[in-house]
Amino acid sequence: MKNDLYSFLICSNCKLSEINDSLGKCDSCGFALTHTKGVLRFIDSEYHSNFGYQWNKFSKVQLDSFNGSNESESRLLSQSNLTPKDFKGKTVLEVGAGNGRFTELLLKYGAKVIAIDYSTAIEANYKNNSSKDNEVIFMQADLFNLPIKKNVFDIVICYGVIQHTGDNKKALNELCQYPRDGGMLLVDIYSSGLKYFNPWVYLIRPFFSLIKTSDEKRLKIVQAFVDFSFPLQLWLLRLVYKKSGFLKYIRYIVNRSPNSVYGINLYLDGKVNINTAKDWCVLDTYDGWAPKHDHPVSRFKWEAMLKYSAGKYGFSVKNISASGQGHTAILTKN
Question: Where does the pLDDT of residue 49 fall: very low under 50, low under 70, confident under 90, or very high at 90 and above?
Fold first, then answer.
């Protein structure tokens, strides 16, 4: 079956013509794109190889269909203020799609998706979601140089990504150029507020980046740290689970450990099993220690960014609210 989403692509070489088929060949100049492991490649180098390595190593941990929770679905629907029916038949550009925790849901809801990631994490996405290959395109590409038509998508979604791009304002401006008139932009960013601040991460990250070794060995360092700390953290968080008064401060301190304990909290909530909880802790810890760029912002700065971009590109900001790790927003194009 023909994949109509190819009509949304333009040639990265001449910028003039559509890509006419799944081989990624330009009608105008004949330029053929690289298409390997189910993914269209528009970049040669990879930003911080760990971003690809970790998501391929833990390719299914965050998928609701694998871990048995509704963690990804709950986040997607609560942040977007949409229902599954709202996505049916819609064309969606998902930027920073990673291993496909949201891609899986978008396809399940009946959307047609172009899933993009800068790293080889998109290969994990392909493996997880390629069963609906006539309704999705997997692409390794740079947000700041996307070979995609502008002003054409019903929905553009970018969750957990902007703060890692290296330029928050520029990233938001780029995203604003792809929804059609009447379309939506769903976006979030990490908060710099004390509620979300973990000083350990910012102390460890510079030293972790100095470790000149393979991603596999770097992951083993994280794995060893989590193996060591996980039993005690599990015991402490179980002890103070849903407790109030002084005990809630113990929970606050444990939640600000050098490694992520998010998986433990999911386990105590009955959402995932103990093995998935531990893998989630390893994944999130690696994600916290390793990024080259991480630029969270205050609520005030987020609102200022949204106001500027909305005014420049003709959007209305419909909602700004708190999300799991920071701030989220819903914009509609006028």
Answer: low
Rg (CA), the chain: 20
Number of domains in the chain: 2
How far CA 312 is from CA of 165, 175, 305, 316, in Å, comes to 21, 12, 11, 11
Rounded Cα distance, 3 and 119, in Å = 23
* Domain shared by 152 and 78, yes or no: yes
Q: How far is residue 302's CA from residue 16's CA, in Å, rounded to a whole number? A: 35
Are 300 and 264 part of one and the same domain?
Answer: no
Which residues form the domain of 217?
Answer: 199-289
261: burial class by Cβ within 10 Å (0-12, 13-18, 19+)? buried
Predicted TM-score (pTM) above 0.90: yes
- Residues 39, 119 contacting (CB under 8 angstroms): no
- Does residue 249 surpass a pLDDT of 50? yes
Q: Which helix (H) or strand (E) holds 187?
A: strand 179-190
